[in-house]
Structures are given as C-alpha cells and as structure tokens.
Specification:
heterodimer, A: 112 residues, alpha+beta, two-stranded antiparallel ribbon, 5 helices, 14% strand, globular, B: 148 residues, mainly alpha, 2 domains, 0% strand, rod-shaped
C-alpha cells in the first residue's frame, strides 16, 4: 500500500480517469474500483476522496446526480462537458511526471 | 442487504453529532458508511460490530476532520485573494497618508490637498483593513471557543 503523501497529488487524475471510463460513480464505488484496479496497492482514504470530489464539483469539473437507495441518498458523480476536456490534460501531465520519475530513479545502465 | 431505517438514522446521528453539518457531505458519508456496514453484515457480522469497523476505516481522525479539510479546500483560494486585496489596500492607504505628509513638508502640496490625501488614506484603511482585522479576530475567537 502506498503512503498518503504519495497519493496526494494523483487523486484528482485518478478520479477524472475513472469517471471518463464510467458514466457516473459514487464514492464507495470509486474506492472499491481503485482498490481492484491497483491490486490493493492504492487504498483511497474517504477523508481525502470527498474533499477532492466536492472541490472538483465546485470548480465545475464534476456534477452530481442524487438517487434514493433504501432510506438514504446516493450521490453519483459524473464529468461535466468542461471536465471531460480536462481529463486528457491531467492524464498527460501525470504520465509525463511518472516518466520523469522513472528517469530519475531507474538505475542507469553501465557505460562500457 | 440494505440496512434498516433505524440503523441509517443511527449512522446519520453519529455524523451530525460529530460535526458534519454540510448536507451534501452528510449524504456522501452516510451512503459510504451504509455500504461498508452492509458489506460487513453480509459476511455475518452484527450491525454494532460493522459500525465500529466502519468508523475506524472511514473516519479514523473523526468525521469533523473531513468537513474541516473540505472547508479548507473550498475556501483557500477565496481567502488568499481576500488577504491579497486587504494587504494591497492597506499599503495604498498608508502610502497615501505618508505621501500627503511628505509632500506637505517641502510645500509641494497645499494644506487642503494634504488633508484630502490623509482623509482618503484613513477612509480606505477604515473600510478595508479595520473590518478585515475585526472579522479575522471574530473567526479566531469562534475557533477557540469551539476547540475548548
């Protein structure tokens, strides 16, 4: 399992990526999906997830749709049209960052 | 399995009683708690046991921490902008008063012009820096009161 510090900067791109591939998702579903896709290596904390979802909603990236499930309300999050346009940019930036990290941390091949 | 109305009310009471006043966040957390509890109860656990596990898993630092983090995220940009504006206005008001006095000494400005500059500076200070100072003090006192 990765540390909270490492996950901090990648939470929003993860949310955007998942929602770009699924029409709408609710919080618990997002946590479970990330856990499954990462082979239990990435466990999103609810304390980080909901502030991020609400922040993205206030920025106009996400919108919500509420439905009743039993005695409670379930809020589904989905990308807005402006949010859909931001997905590729966020993913490109993250992949570029991952590539840069690889360059820094991967052992260099010995020069013969 | 869907937990019953009384159990949902119990979880809602826990969230409200622990500082979750934002209705939207309340709905999110209530549904999340219910999903986790239902998952546990499907494996044969009791509601009480499942609820305790859900509290440990979802709100290890207390539910109010989530709302605090959310409020911070939602207001940080606005607060930074407000502070910038107040600092700029404070600087301009002090500059105006000092300019009036400095230009009066070598007689560059007349007495009336100096008075006008000082009045503008004092007025700007009164409508920006002073209210912000008291607002900030008020917020700090509320925070202190709540943390007691």
């Amino acid at each position: 399992m990765y540390s909270r510090e490492l996950l901090k900067g990648i939470l929003k791109p993860i949310i955007l990526k998942l929602l770009s591939e699924n029409d709408k998702m609710y919080g618990y579903e997002i946590v479970q999906k990330v856990k499954e896709l990462s082979g239990d290596k990435i466990l999103i904390k609810e304390g980080s997830l909901y502030p991020a979802l609400h922040s993205l909603s206030s920025e106009g990236v996400l919108q919500t749709e509420s439905i009743s499930v039993g005695n409670r309300t379930r809020k589904y999050y989905k990308l807005t049209s402006s949010g859909s346009g931001q997905v590729q940019l966020a993913l490109d930036e993250l992949l570029d960052f991952a590539q840069t990290l690889k360059t820094i941390f991967e052992p260099k091949a010995a020069i013969s | 399995m869907i937990i019953d109305e009384g159990q949902v009310s119990f979880v809602r009471g826990y969230l409200i009683g622990n500082g979750i006043s934002n209705h939207s966040l309340q709905d999110d957390l209530l549904d999340h708690f219910c999903c986790v509890i239902e998952e546990d109860m499907e494996e044969g656990q009791s509601f009480d046991h499942s609820f305790s596990r859900a509290v440990e898993r979802i709100t290890p630092e207390g539910p109010e921490k989530i709302q605090k983090d959310l409020n911070y995220l939602l207001t940080i940009k606005k607060n930074i902008m407000l502070r910038k504006l107040v600092f700029i206005a404070s600087y301009i008001s002090v500059l105006t008063v000092l300019s009036g006095l400095a230009l009066r000494i070598p007689q560059i400005l007349s007495g009336n012009a100096t008075l006008l500059l000082i009045m503008v500076g004092v007025l700007l200070f009164s409508v920006t820096t002073v209210p912000y100072f008291f607002y900030d003090r008020y917020q700090k006192s509320i925070r202190e009161l709540k943390s007691e």
